[in-house]
Amino acid sequence: MADLDDSKFRFRCVKISAVSDRRISRRKLLGAAATVPAAAGLHSLVTGGGLGSAPARAESNGNGHGNGAGNGHAGHDAFAHATFAPGRTVDHRANGFEPTELLRDFDYGKTRRLAGGRVLREWEIVAMDKEIEVAPGVKYEAWTYNGRVPGPTLRAREGEKLRVRFVNASEHPHTMHFHGIHPASMDGMPGIGERLGGGQIEPGESFAYEFDAEPFGLHLYHCHTAPLAAHIARGLYGAFVVDPKKGRPEADEMVMVMNGFDTNFDLGNEVYAVNTVGFHYVNDPIRVKRDELVRIYLVNALEFDPINSLHVHANFFQHYPTGTSLEPSEFTDTVVQGQGQRSILELKFPFDGDYMFHAHVSEFAELGWTGFFRVGDPSLLGSAAAAAAYCKLPWGGNGGIA
């Protein structure tokens, strides 16, 4: 089979139906984003007129999720499937980060030896307000650590002394709360630690968190200022890896932070993703080598939904919950996480080809939380066949593929 031209198959499934009801589900809302200028995006559609003269608003079924059928779905004949604006791509340069680069971007900070020989590892993290694009034409007013969502993946070794200088350049009070073991004054909890200059950090203020790197494993950090859901949902979170003293076997390592975005502020997410941009790893599959060990640091930072999950097609992985043991707990192909849970997953791909991975909550997958691993030499593969096939929906059409 002849190779396919990637440029013809950029993932942009589009199925837009006429909207006769003044109530707008989140799927219809995303569909409508394709009909407004990219600069305006979904946010202007929601906050302004949009969709003719009727103000667009998300319909709710009582659990924060828009729907048009009473069960979280609007029906295959009525909703826009993964309707991110056709023919457009996210401006990663304007965002200041690119999801493919975030995968393998580990921030080791700066180190120096203390008088007693112990390693001190230091970082500077700055909270700032920033508009980002989470899907083509869909802008979001994010609150960020170092201008990116998720924040930097901090990495240290078990037993080191850590110092994180936090600067609040945002217009809002924030903190950094680290999962791990540390004194209460270093917990990033408002009302605790103010005597030492910690607790809630007001705009223009700064604080240095100091604690030991323990236990080893995969942790996370996030803002803990009230209202907590709003501060996390806006983007104030990141992964925090503490390597065991003896290390782990060599592997192709990558970080996947599962997240979502409530673009119309109805306490329900309209876009789901890994590392922020919906469907990014469909358009740009993650390239790995055949038979090479792949290690995934998986973090669930999703707000407003009680669980999230990851499923890998045609393969199984060793699962290390929280990464605090060097022995896996199970050999499986699906992992389910509550908010804040983490897992280290290890697997090898024995065959060349494109292999899908996605949330095993179908709604999440259809709203952005889907990607592909590309195994082997890309020149020998039908280069966008998998993404093209994914767009050919059983309920009609080919997803708007050009």
Keywords summarizing the entry:
8 helices; 21 strands; disordered C terminus; mainly beta; Immunoglobulin-like; five-stranded mixed beta sheet
List the SSEs and their pairings.
Blueprint: H1 26-33, H2 41-47, H3 92-95, H4 99-103, E1 106-107, E2 110-113, E3 119-135, E4 138-145, E5 153-157, E6 161-168, E7 177-178, E8 206-212, E9 217-222, H5 228-233, E10 237-243, E11 252-261, E12 271-274, H6 280-283, E13 286-288, E14 294-300, E15 307-312, E16 317-321, E17 330-332, E18 334-338, E19 342-347, E20 353-358, H7 362-366, E21 370-375, H8 385-391
Parallel strand pairs: 1-5, 3-6, 5-10, 11-14, 13-21
Antiparallel strand pairs: 2-3, 3-4, 6-8, 7-9, 9-10, 11-12, 14-19, 15-18, 15-20, 16-17, 16-19, 20-21
Please describe what this structure looks like:
This protein is mostly beta strands. The protein has a domain at 93-243: Sandwich (Immunoglobulin-like). 11% of the residues lie in helices and 32% in strands. The chain is built from 8 helices and 21 strands. The chain has helices spanning 26-33, 41-47, 92-95, 99-103, 228-233, 280-283, 362-366, 385-391; strands spanning 106-107, 110-113, 119-135, 138-145, 153-157, 161-168, 177-178, 206-212, 217-222, 237-243, 252-261, 271-274, 286-288, 294-300, 307-312, 317-321, 330-332, 334-338, 342-347, 353-358, 370-375. Strands 12-11-14-19-16-17 form a 6-stranded mixed sheet. A 5-stranded mixed sheet has the order 1-5-10-9-7, with no helix packed on it. α1 packs across α2 (41-47). The longest helix has 8 residues, at 26-33. The protein is globular.
